[in-house]
Structures are given as structure tokens and as C-alpha cells.
Write the C-alpha cells for this entry.
Amino acid sequence: MSIDPDSRYTQLINHRTRSKALLTKGFSELRDGRWTIAEELVWGSLILAAKEHSLSVGYILSEDEEIRDYIVKLGEDRKDRQIRDSFKQLDGFPDMIEKVRESGLRLDYLFMLLDDVAHAIEKLWSSSDDNISTTKP
């Protein structure tokens, strides 16, 4: 399916804007101790960054499983652990919250986990920018 260039560009900007806002809000919620909300916001940011990246190379992703598969494959192709494992890390976030609550595990671990995912999101943004700049006439 062909994507209208203007529509594609609008979608790319929309995905990036929303992804950045969710990531910023997610870390704000984390600092305020609202860990579950923070997790959901970072999930949203990662999904939008993945959709943006796929759209930057001409693919439209919509189903959760295809988004996950795309990110795992992209991470494997680039030999990038942060990208490859980003969804897996977020899957483990509720367990990490439980460990912090029950055993007094340091809060730093929550920040480190989400910081790792944030770096993956930023790499996706950067790669999207590279993809877009190489396809401009």
C-alpha cells in the first residue's frame, strides 16, 4: 500500500510529539512515586516510537504483536540490546515494582530500567530521523 507523503509526514510528527510527551510525563510520574502510571506512559511512548520508526521506512504497524516483533528484529539486526529488549524490560517492570515494595530494593532499579527503555526510544527517534533524511528528494 502506498502512503501519501504529506499524510506520512503528519503521522511521523504526530507519533514523535506524542511519544516525547508520554516519555516526559512517565518520568515525572516515576519521580512522584506513581510507578504503575509511569509504566503505562513509557509503554505508550515506546509503541509510538516503534510505529514512527516503521513508518519512516514505509511500514504501517498496528497490532501489538507485530510492533513487538518489529522491535525485536530491528534490535537483532542492529545488534542493539536496548532496542531488542525494550518490551521485555517493560514486561518485567511490575515485578520490579513488587520487589521494591516487598523487599526494600532500591528505587534506583526502577529508574535504571526505565532509563534503559528511554535510551531505546531515543535511538528509535534518531534512526527515524536518519531514515527520513535519506528518503528526502
The first helix runs from residue 5 to 31. The radius of gyration is 16 Å.
